[in-house]
Amino acid sequence: MIDNGLWRRLIREFKNLFPLFRYLLLQTETHAFCLALAAAALLAFFPACLVMLAVFKNILRWDGAHDVLLNNVLMTYFPIDQEFVIRNLRLRLQWMGQRTGLASLLWVLLGAAGVFVPLETALNRLWKTQEDRPYWLNQIVGFTLAIGCTVLAVVFLSFTTALHGVVTQFPFNIVRGALHFVVTRLSMTCFFIVTIFAFYKFLPNKKIDARQVMPAAILAGIMSELVRVIFVRVVPDLYPTQGPFAISVTFLLLVYFETFVVLGCAFLASRTERYPWMGFLPRKGRLPTPVS
């Protein structure tokens, strides 16, 4: 039997989550930020994938990592019609051929940096920052983060490719299939955690303690993967209503829901005094955090 003291604590913690639910569900600003982030991610997704494929194929000459990104990562993580997306990435990369240059890749990353405009604004609101960065400075920070995230993606894909190479040595197809699945999910979840941590740490226009946001980044990375798994299984067929835009709309909806996770965990990180269970990493000193 559960004693009354434990029930009271559980009820108290549940009531303590009401500000989080209010922020995520009832504030129009949160929905506007999530929609803007989803739209920016939709614009940046294809070019970002093209950059990584071009780096592996035409610059590093690493066909193994190129194939892992196409056949394992994208096949696992894109919500619908993965074959269509992969086929068009292959065709576009083939058309680019050897003309892929560093300057063109940097221009693509500069365009992808637009996702950081609404994300910085949302994080600044959570950390009660008085003003946002000027647009030009936001673009410098965003471009730097875009390059950093691309490098991180290359590093994680390199490790993933090496692990998939080890997995191919195992006997039995069922064992290899299960291990390929685990390697892909685990490596990409770790990539999400590190990327979200970088967003929490460097995007707000104020100094953020890394140990304050690391627990939230871990939670956000795991919950984002859970949201993606659930979304893929429950999303309806949008072709009857969206026609040729069904693929783009489905991807936008997926990112829209995942950004609620990212902003929700940032909300928890910015209010560790209210949610002390988020501070499972020890810190040298308490930071003054707003309580709402």
Quote the beta fraction: under 5%
Alpha carbon gap, first and last residue: 34 Å
Helix content: over 70%
Query: What string gives the helices and strands in order?
Result: HHHHHHHHHHHH
Structural class: mainly alpha
What does the radius of gyration come to? 21 Å
| Low-confidence residue ranges | 285-292
User: Strand count, sense and closure of the main sheet?
Assistant: none
Integer count of domains: 1
Number of helices: 12
**Overall body shape:** globular
Could you tell me the number of beta strands? 0
Summed over residues and divided by their number, the pLDDT gives a mean of 81
Report what the structure shows:
This protein has 292 residues and is mainly alpha-helical. It has one domain. The C terminus is likely disordered. The radius of gyration is 21 Å and the shape is globular.
Keywords:
single chain; 292 residues; mainly alpha; 12 helices; globular; disordered C terminus
List the helices and strands and how they pair.
Blueprint: H1 4-16, H2 18-26, H3 28-59, H4 63-77, H5 82-96, H6 102-112, H7 116-126, H8 135-167, H9 173-202, H10 210-234, H11 239-242, H12 246-269
Helix pairs in contact: 3-4, 3-6, 3-7, 3-12, 4-8, 6-8, 8-9, 9-10, 10-12
